[in-house]
Amino acid sequence: MTGIGSQTGRNASSHKRGAPEPDQEALDLAADWADISQGLRKDLGHQLHSQWIKPIQLGSFCKETGTLDLFLPTEFSANWVHDRFHDRLSLAWKIASGDVKHVRIAVHPGRRKLADLALKQDAPARRPVANDRLNGDSLAMGSIDDHGFTSSVGLDPSLTFAAFVTGTTNVLAFNAAQRMAKEEKPQFSPLYLKAATGQGKTHLLHAIGHSYLQAHPRARIFYCSAERFMVEFVQALRQNEMIEFKARLRGFDLLLVDDIQFIIGKASAQEELLYTIDALLAEGKRLVFAADRAPQALDGVEQRLLSRLSMGLVADIQPADIELRRAILESKMTKFAPLDVPADVIEFLARTINRNVRELVGGLNKLIAYAQLTGQEVSLQLAEEQLTDILSANRKRITIDEIQRTVCQFYRVDRSEMSSKRRARAVVRPRQVAMYLSKVLTPRSYPEIGRKFGGRDHSTVIHAVRLIEDLRQRDSDMDGDVRSLLRQLES
User: Fold this and answer.
1) pLDDT tens profile 399-456
2) Nearest by Cα to 314 from 333, 339, 296
3) Closest residue by Cα to residue 458 from 444, 446, 440
4) Where in the chain is the domain with CATH 3.40.50.300?
5) What is the pLDDT of residues 173-188, one digit of tens each?
6) 2-107, what's its fold?
7) 77: which of 104, 230, 359, 472 lies 20 to 30 Å off by Cα?
8) Using an 8 Å Cβ cutoff, are 205 and 258 in contact?
């Protein structure tokens, strides 16, 4: 960690000069925190870091006890970070600074309440500040400008439409998201994005926010997860601040709520969200929701709310197929230039990391980072060695029996032909394709595969694999057949 050496130097010089001034001490702590935060971002990934580590503010430091306070905006976030990251944060600070012995995580004592958030047009003017979350309030993701408008700053700058790679599995959702962000009134509202984890629904939410702000610079945007909505709702309820909560929530032009499935079973919050949707729709405003399941599959949600969520357009994002996974990897390679990643490595990653796009990109980043830090060349062997955890989690256990059954159905031949001695072309070619797929999709050796095909010699299997590989290069029909079979077997 870069903070270790720099802190050591500061400690040595401070002993010569005596105790550092308070301002210098604060600067030193801030510098160490910048190093620690950067390291955690690499370890945890952008999403976890942005949601939980980035909002942390440095508090006071007691030199007598060696205790450093770290503040978070809400009790929920403070408890969450303490439970999951306290040990890691404590260790990082002890390494970075010999003076820090204990780390204490708490709610910021001076954070403003909902009623203090300048809801009216005559509120004191304030210039927008990048990444300012209004002193940590997680609901109002913006700042008040000279005209009293709230503009969103809670959006990830990297998650734009330009950075979103499209394919047949996500083009409907992409086009619908673009339409929602255009200047003209959309044909449908709300837009409901349905996708499994890591398939791009959160990316599209952020992209809508960025694009809408470009078309409407004074727009007021509300972006948060349903979980954060729940936390702020309960807090406002307990503090008797529901009037302010409702007024602020309904003052936005664009409502973006992620992971709506987490609002399941919260009757009072569901009712408030229902009334908010009705109020915003009545004023012609835009709403976008995202979840890992369709509205009808949300258990414990009131029927009236289900009807509101599904009354616009439900756009489904299917898992990325291999063509889209290849395109995503190739698009990411531009930022690593001039580093060379062989085509067989790209193909290997695209074929084997198929659960979600987030894992796919994470695997590529991990592989390249390891190669750069160790000075090794990126290779297929390095990928297999360093990505074992990701690969094992993604690898579907496809059997040779399943391959034979699928190939026979595809070519309309009897299953017994996989083991027969017949040499007719209509039988031999499907059998060779099945042998090729058995080698590509299973860990079985050539002799093991041969035994599953009527006790054939391993040299016969090798010949079949090489033949199909060659035919795929020269014959587009054969390549199309194999691709279709791969999609069926990997789905």
Assistant:
1) 899 999 999 999 999 999 999 988 888 899 999 999 999 998 887 889 999 999 999 9
2) 296
3) 446
4) 114-317
5) 999 999 999 888 888 8
6) GMP Synthetase; Chain A, domain 3 (3.30.300)
7) 359
8) yes
Name residue 191's beta-bridge partners: 288, 313
Is 198 annotated as contributing to ligand binding?
A: yes
Length of the chain: 491
Buried b (16+ CB within 10 A) or exposed e, 470-490: ebbeeeeebeebbeebbeebb
pTM beyond 0.70: the answer is: no
266 is annotated as contributing to ligand binding: no
Between CA 390 and CA 480 the distance in angstroms is: 28
CATH code given to domain 400-490? 1.10.1750.10
Map residue 220 onto helix, strand or coil.
Answer: coil
Domain with CATH 3.30.300.180 in the chain: 2-107
**Is 142 flagged in the annotation as binding?**
no
The CATH fold of domain 114-317? Rossmann fold (3.40.50)
CATH 3.40.50.2300 fits 322-394, yes or no: no
2 is in an annotated binding site: no
